[in-house]
Design goal:
By secondary structure, this protein is of the alpha+beta class. The protein is built from six helices and seven strands, in the order αβαββαββαββαα.
């Protein structure tokens, strides 16, 4: 089956479906083991099937200085990034690319009409479909995040 052209690609086409997740009560160690087992750098934090945050490898690294030896047992809810950005699965790829730059994030969560998590899209997922010039512009916007 042929791949859809860029103009017809949607978030659902490029997302990682049904990503590994954790809850606000999961320990940081449990989440880090998910990073390892799923070979990923972020885990959506879910309550009742809906995203309430995301835990990234960066969140863990920054928390290490503050929490040191207590970090593995700390609840994910204490260090996760709250206020995650979500997109609809039918969002077209051009608008999706714009969301990364506008929101200055590296990952977006894909949710259905009921706000339940369907998948996750990283910048790496969309980059192959974006001309080099646009990749450079978007990366600059994300990296220069205030």
């Amino acid at each position: 089956m042929a791949e859809p052209s860029r103009s017809k690609l949607t978030a659902a086409d490029v997302m990682t479906p049904a990503p590994r997740t954790c809850s606000i009560f999961s320990t940081v160690l449990e989440a880090v083991l998910l990073f390892r087992d799923a070979d990923c750098g972020a885990v959506p934090v879910i309550e009742d099937g809906k995203p309430v945050g995301i835990l990234t490898d960066r969140d863990v690294a920054l928390a290490l200085a503050e929490h040191e030896e207590n970090l593995p047992d700390l609840p994910v809810g204490k260090i996760m990034t709250q206020g995650v950005f979500t997109v609809a699965p039918e969002l077209d790829i051009d608008t999706l690319v714009g969301q990364f730059g506008d929101r200055r994030v590296r990952r977006l969560l894909v949710v259905g009409a009921d706000e339940r998590l369907l998948g996750i899209v990283s910048w790496a997922d969309v980059a192959p479909y974006v001309p080099d010039r646009e990749v450079g512009e978007a990366v600059t916007e994300v990296v220069e995040k205030p």
